[in-house]
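SAMPLE LOG
Freezer: B-3
Tube label: C17
Construct: single chain, 145 aa
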Amino acid sequence: MVVVEHSVTFKGDLQSAWDKLVDLSRMHEWDIFVDSVQFDGPLKVGSAGNLKSRDGHHYVLTVTDFNPLENYSDEISVMGSKFIFYHELSEKTPGEITMRFTITAKGFIAFIFQYPIKNAFEQKLPILMDNFKRQYEETAQKSAS
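STRUCTURE (predicted):
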């Protein structure tokens, strides 16, 4: 099993950070793994959608947990392995948001390629989260002007 986790903290409010996090039509702007994500309806436990990765692969993405303004998780299956993506937002101090992502890979492919998979996620997850933070803060600054 492979587990990679990263957190980032930024100034903002929980509602607007959550709205950006679950805005699937714009996820490709900050998520370096995703070219597009589409669901037929609102996000909820059991929702299934189509994820197209930046390298052109298509996956069925299934929401496995959904708690608005707190967290959600979704997963894809690839050749006998599951990749689980956990997204969490919290506001421990008013006006300061901490976002935590955890990626877990389980199964045959994850076992065989655990080191390259872990290395790739450890390198790319901080970039993805810094992209989110930077874009969120830029949008907040424009709104304040």
